[in-house]
Amino acid sequence: MLLIDAIFIGLLEASPLILAAMGFTLIFYLNGFMNIAYAESITFGAYFAVLFNVVLGAHFYLSIVPSMLLSGCLSVAVYLAIFRPALNRGVGPTEMIILSVGVSFMLRYGLILVVGPENLFLNEPDITYLQFMGMGATNLQLVALALVFLGAGTLYWMIYNTGLGEQMRGLANNHDLAMASGINPHRTSVAIWFIAGCAGGLSGVFSGVFAQVTPYMGWNVILITMLVTIVAGVGSVRGAVVAAVVAGVLTAFITLVTKPLYAEVALLLAFIGVLTYRGARTA
Amino acid sequence: MDYLIFSFSLMLVYIGLAQLLHVQFGLLGIPNFGVVGFWGLGLYGTGVLYVSYSMPLIVAILLASLITAAVAYILSHLVLQRSGQAILAATLAFAAIVATLIITEKDITGGVQGLGTIGFPFADVASRNVIYFFLLMVVVVLLIWISAKLRDSRMGRSLIAIRDNEELAASLGKDTAGTKRGVFVLTCALMGLLGGLTAPLHQFLVPYLLAPSLTFAVWIALVLGGKGHNLGAMVGVFATFGLFDILIETYAPVPAEQAILLPNFKLFCYGVLLVMIIMFRPAGMLGVDGPRTRARPATTPAGDASVKEG
Amino acid sequence: MKLEASNLTKAYHQHEVVNIEHVAFGAKGLEGLIGPNGAGKSTLMGLLTRRIAPTSGDIKLDTGSGVKTLNPLKSHEVARIGLIKTNQRIQGFDSLTIRDSLRLAMTPPKDEGFMSVFASHRDPEDVEERVSQLIEAFPFTDRNGYARSGGEKKLLDILRCLIAEPKLLLMDEPTAGLPDDITRTVMDMVREKVADGKMRVVVVEHDLPLIWEYCDYVHFLSEGSILFEGEPEEVKSNRVVAEKYMGV
């Protein structure tokens, strides 16, 4: 029973993480560096939702899509303004990560300077608590879960079954060959950064509605996202999904048997262990 | 006045940390993103040994540094031969583990209530904080001097070779894994030592001190000053901590209602500075450009330069 | 110095790249290893220097003062015994000057410990002298600077290995990417050292005239196995070699 509970709660809680890990993985795979500023795609997704839902008064469900799209646009803007020029200058992978830390600081604290450091809340839609076979969840959680799986499924399909996914893999594996065979690297990269930003934004909207919207919310999950991605292996979107689900279920399980903070420690230790024994050739 | 001495003492600690990071990353290419974790082990180790076990301060500091070394040794076996990005993520995770355990193990560390009080040495001297400041200065100057000597030594040359091409260095008979491990453990232990030396400055330890922002502040300082330059770390700390935490926070005429946003403004500026430096002057303020500029295509696979051994 | 491998195999995904019953290098002075593309020459070189782990088999090194099994050793330990390999692909230390790169190769690891930080001089006279001597012998564009072209880097790679004074040197396609006259200077230098009894050499090459000219003994590798061994004249006139390699 404990295990089923853990899996159920884990899935519910991991759903934003799955999206974030997929988006993070896409950029990691395409450009070969860990984009810590991806945290801000998540945060900004939630803040855009606040803009539509609280400031403009739209229904929560209606504000999901525009928030997601705006987050995607932000991601593209950051890519075009900062990351692409840096990559073209030949900045190495570790320096790119440091650069992304800088971008992350800039966006996060810029946001705080504009809207203030206070925690905000989204106007949740009417909540009903549903019970099914002894397990309970709110309708909002179920909608979120469904949307996450829809989003994740679409993303998955896009990567493995469409021309865009193929172009991305071509670019990541052999840039020159891909260019020679007529792939437009610019358009593909912009598309990937947009999709990744959207995934992060959606993840942020749900994290925000489940708890609260804070300037640090993206930052708080970026470490786990990073580890999930590395453990999954470069560019393995499949791996990222599996690792995110496992991470979610594991956290839920340990939280049920002990304290939540121990769950975090155990999860991080598990990641270091996996890195040691299997991460050798991935990143 | 006391506050200013406190700030300057803290700045020395930052310079020391950045200097050690210069050895780890600038010379040897190990991206240690767990600086605050090693520093924090030294800080809290000293605090616990001093407060709960009533050890003399100096003994507590040295013992805490040894504990830090032991932890670094274990970590070095786990991840040091992995790729740079894996090391980065693992050390970041390590620092998060330390910070969390400080909160959960409240029987030992005092948890969120905090741990104290750690007294200054030379308690009966009036200007003990000034003396302590100069003591810190000696330690930090020593660190800078040794790392400058290191850079121009035979050992430094082999470190640079390992950073550039580990497999090639191994094929010439250099024990690359052993060297990396040795340098990593030693420099992490020194980070722990600096942490221990910070304990009397703060006097009262709270988990908030172990926030990852310290790691990033040190990294930003190093990159800003120039990761490959001996004095880059120092200049970087002057330009960040010195300028913002000391100069602006102490002297800028900011109205009270805006003062609360000042730390956020500071971190925003750090971000902007960091982006500008990497975009326009990647070698840092003091840096000279490398022997050749490596032009790479905009999209490359994550083929990191690091190498694994069989 | 004799390097022996027995029952050595290496397979990638069940596909056997190398399968050698027995081969010995270093018995004859300057030896050549030839074979068609994809014969497994580079894999064999990697196996011998422990950069690639074998699927099965033993590699033994007879240093004159006892036989050592290389299997449990790491690649730097192999190098310390005196077995060093030049690289086919261009490799280098981007932040070291030509001089520093050579000094590094000549400095024994025991002199690179922490105490070297406090040494008053970085490198002893004899190192400086040997480095200058070697650099003067070749037309580097900037003798006090960095290796510029691919050719200079390739040359530097070979010189690094020479100055490290191995007992057995493996050269993986030394001519590729180097101008003819430089190759000759290098090979003459190598031959001289071999003649002085300072080291033994194995050259992997596609440039057959060079093999015939310099080598005392030639191994022929094809499809992962040693098919023929002998003096250059014997190999040249061997029917199997002619069929499999020279396309006669």
Rg of chain A over CA atoms, rounded to whole Å, is 19 Å
Q: Strand-residue fraction of chain B?
A: under 5%
Query: In terms of per-residue confidence, which ranges of chain A show pLDDT below 50 for 5 or more consecutive residues?
Result: 279-283
Can you give the helix content of chain A as a percent range? over 70%
- Low-confidence segments of chain B: 290-310
- Our measurement of the CA-to-CA distance between the termini of chain A, rounded to an integer number of angstroms, reads 37 Å
Largest interface, C-beta closer than 8 angstroms, per-chain residues: A-B, 66 and 57 residues
Q: Which structural category fits the helices and strands of chain A?
A: mainly alpha
pLDDT averaged residue by residue of chain A = 83
What class would the helix/strand composition of chain B place it in?
Answer: mainly alpha
**How many DSSP-defined strands of chain A?**
2
What's the total helix number of chain A?
A: 11
Strand order of the largest sheet of chain A: 1-2
Main beta-sheet strand count, sense and barrel state of chain A = 2 strands, antiparallel
Account of the 3D structure:
The complex is a heterotrimer of chains A (283), B (310) and C (248). Chain A is mostly helical and 283 residues long. Chain A has eleven helices and two strands, in the order ααααββααααααα. Helix content of chain A is 78%, strand content 3%. Chain A has a two-stranded antiparallel sheet. Chain A is globular. By secondary structure, chain B is mainly alpha-helical. Mean pLDDT of chain B is 86; it is low at 290-310. Chain B has a domain at 2-208. With 248 residues, chain C is an alpha/beta fold. The longest helix of chain C is centred in the C-terminal third of the chain and has 16 residues, at 180-195. The two termini of chain C are 36 Å apart. The mean pLDDT of chain C is 88. Chains in contact: A-B, B-C. Chains A and B meet through helix 1, helix 3, helix 4, helix 6 and helix 9 of A and helix 3, helix 4, helix 10 and helix 13 of B.
Structure at a glance:
The complex is a heterotrimer of chains A (283), B (310) and C (248). Chain B has 310 residues and is an all-alpha fold.
